[in-house]
Write a structure and sequence with these properties.
Blueprint lengths: L8 E5 L8 H9 L5 H4 L13 H5 L3 H14 L8 H8 L5 E7 L6 H11 L6 E3 L15 H11 L8 E4 L2 H9 L9 E5 L6 H4 L5 E3 L2 H14 L6
Parallel strand pairs: 1-2, 1-4, 2-3, 4-5, 5-6
Length: 231
């Protein structure tokens, strides 16, 4: 029996703003070049952060693509990991099977995989959504629910995950509603205490976990509910 067919807790985990401090890195870099006459002399803060980067920067889609390409090449490899989360992930039992599911574009695969290998070796796979950030002006509205279905059909996921962890409310809501042949994801977690997920934190039915240690506790509870040993 392969490791993926043994009894286990299958977890899909976001990367940016869950495993690493991506928003802080992006906002800090953005403030080095944005037009402060247009966006204000104080620059950007986490309150301004959103996945629609051209809108956040006050630029066209074309310029946004160029700027994002610059960030990916020069700064994405240096996003700082969450050190507490690193300890949590490293200490999980081997019957917690982890995969990353990220909205990052396909062209970031190499740098993304290198980052995950360096900082989170417990994650053997990095899956990307099908989001076309370059050409689709509504890319920031696409959710991970469709990506999960795609990766199930393509064989990249052996089964519907037991848990998904993400900081973006749109992905959490879509995954709560996802139904695959009558099956649902048991544990849909909104992670982190961020300006962009404040309203969703108190929404009915949303499991909100603001810190790595609370996520760790919740994972062990999910294992117990599934009858899995934490040894």
């Amino acid at each position: 029996m392969s490791i993926e067919t043994q009894p286990a807790l299958h977890v899909l985990c976001d990367l940016d703003n869950v495993l690493g401090h991506s928003a802080l890195k992006i906002v800090g870099w953005s403030n080095s070049w944005i037009d402060r006459k247009k966006l204000g002399p104080g620059g950007l803060s986490l309150t301004d952060y959103q996945e629609n980067f051209p809108a956040m920067w006050g630029v066209t889609l074309e310029e946004g693509n160029e700027r994002w390409g610059e960030f990916c090449a020069e700064h994405m490899p240096h996003i700082p990991p969450d050190e507490i989360m690193q300890g949590v992930i490293a200490g999980l039992p081997q019957n917690v099977l982890l995969k990353v599911l990220t909205s990052r574009a396909a062209h970031t695969q190499e740098v993304t995989r290198a980052w995950v290998r360096q900082h989170y070796p417990r994650f053997p796979d990095v899956l990307h959504t099908l989001t076309d950030w370059t050409n689709d002006p509504k890319a920031h509205l696409r959710t991970k629910a469709d990506a999960i279905v795609h990766h199930l059909r393509s064989g990249n996921l052996p089964c519907l995950p037991d848990m998904i962890v993400d900081d973006e409310p749109k992905h959490v809501i879509a995954c709560q509603d996802l139904d695959v042949d009558g099956a649902k994801i048991d544990h849909v977690v909104l992670y982190g205490d961020y300006p962009w997920n404040k309203e969703a934190q108190s929404a009915l039915g949303v499991t909100w976990l603001p810190t790595p240690l609370l996520l760790e506790e919740y994972m062990y509870e999910a294992m117990a509910r599934k009858g899995l040993s934490a040894a």
